[in-house]
Amino acid sequence: xxxxxxxLEGVLVPEIWIAFSKASGIPELKRTxxxxxxxxxxxxxxxxxxxxxxxxxxxxxxTIRTIDPLPGAKEFLDELRSLTQVIIISDTFTQFATxxxxxxxxxxxxxxxxEVADNGEITGFKMRIENSKYATxxxxxxxxxxxxxxxxxxxxxxxxxxxxNGYLFRTTDxxxxxxxxxxxxxxxxxxxxxIKDVL
Length: 199
Fold this sequence. Notes:
- By secondary structure, this protein is an alpha/beta fold.
- The protein has helices at about 15-25, 40-55, 55-65, 75-85, 95-105, 130-140, 155-160, 175-180, 190-199; strands spanning about 1-5, 85-95, 110-115, 120-125, 145-150, 165-170, 185.
- Helix 4 packs parallel to helix 9.
């Protein structure tokens, strides 16, 4: 039995932090897991910048409400879900993901949660499990699934490499150079065709 595991940001929706960087006028917040492999370090750094600028959950959610899925993403996801089980495995947070899941037709997502003070300040974050993407893929395999995975960033590589089949999607040139053995696609039609071939 197959199950497809997809990253969210950069694969199905634009990067939330890049959108918020533009909306807030804080260029440092453009940094993502494409640039920084250590997610814990990246999030602590982001929270520090938010605190410094007096920004909290509300401001980020206001930006997220303006974000639409990438062109063709919902159609790709709908077709894929008609063929096999699909789970989105993301390092984002429930408080960020909900409006995006509505726009994508409520697919299943496994993600994390933010710690938020009463005044809306983001004070920390709680990861669902350590190395969540890799750990989730291994857990699915342990209950009889063959996983097929796709993502665009450093934090997707363990999930992709641990799967029966794994693909890079709209990734960076650096990641493509460093992982030449992984097939890399730019178009949903090509990713869908590759997945169909192994279902």
